[in-house]
Amino acid sequence: MHKAMQGYIRAIDRMNHVIGRIAMYLIFVLMGVLLWSSVSKTFLTPSIWTLETAQFVMVAYYVLGGPYSIQLGSNVRMDLFYGDWSPRTKAWVDGFTVFFLLFYLVVLFMGAVSSTAYSLGYFGMEPFAFFGDLFMTLITQGFAAANEKLGFLEKSPTAWQPQLWPIKVVLCLGVFLMILQCVAEFFRDLERLRGSEA
Prior knowledge:
The protein is mostly helical. The protein has one domain. It has helices at 2-23, 26-43, 50-72, 79-82, 87-119, 127-141, 143-148, 165-194. Keywords: Cell inner membrane, Cell membrane, Membrane, Transmembrane, Transmembrane helix, Transport. Its main location: membrane. It is a multi-pass membrane protein.
């Protein structure tokens, strides 16, 4: 079990490190979109796509970079007491409080999956079954058959009206990666309590 935990920690850390390092460059994409928005509003006809694109890029930046932030320990904490504790005490407290974060993230993930299914035209109560069926259809029958299973695609109610499923998929991916990283942090705390570093 000890080796399996260390392997899990290394694999998740490596994956979230790569994704987080890529996601951090989205800030430049965001700056480019906002710069174009300012230029187009000042000198040209204002672009209707810039505000929502900036929001979508910010969501991707935030949720895909979140697991990397947890990995680095740069997430926000109340350091009033925590900063003075020993590493062992921190591991005990982190190992306990991570369950509250995991509960929140699992509820958020379930809501994100349900919202993503809704954005693809599924209005039932079993979004995971919908995605399982969609995935199996895609694998066995191809893209055209899977496309027939989709309903009315949800669009933003703005003038630009982009489809919302891509950013909702990014949200699901980001929250899922955050759950994986929180489990890795829990295992890391267990390793610290055992007296070894992962």
